[in-house]
Amino acid sequence: MDDKKRRILNPFAGVGEYHCFGCDPHNPIGLKLQFVLRGDEVTATWEPRPDLEGYPGVVHGGIQATLADEIGAWYVYAVYATAGVTKSLEIQYKRPALASDGPFTIRARGERDGDRHARIHVTLESASGEVCAQTECVYVLFSEAVARKRFLFPGKDAFFDPN
Q1: How high is the mean pLDDT of the chain?
Q2: Mean per-residue pLDDT, 41-54
Q3: What is the largest CA-CA distance in the chain?
Q4: Residues pairing with 42 in the sheet
Q5: Domain coverage including residue 144
Q6: CA-CA distance, 142 to 140, in Å (whole number)?
């Protein structure tokens, strides 16, 4: 696989009723994630905000799970060239994700499990590289035709700058 770093575009931004909490750049309360593909890994960098804490100074565990689920979905778009839905998500919190330890890096790598499923392995790392959480997300994958019809999947090319 190509080891060149490629920014993943968000073809959904500004379309209709799109307000994704994880990746819509215009959602005022959202995470505003942007993704990069390098080889077989998708990454994102995220800066925590005080309104997303559980205990004071600690990133809420549900937000950590959302970060993992969101990057997993974008892995499916960018690498498997289709859409999918989350079947399961299992997260292990390794250490507190202190807001002061940001910005955080989210890393995703996947493996196909037959034609209809993918397992996406996600790590949430502090700015110093300490692993705060590890997640395994399982996605049900759809054919490209179903993804286009039911999930507004625009095709893999829409996620990358052609230049």
Answers
A1: 96
A2: 97
A3: 46
A4: 37, 108
A5: 40-159
A6: 7
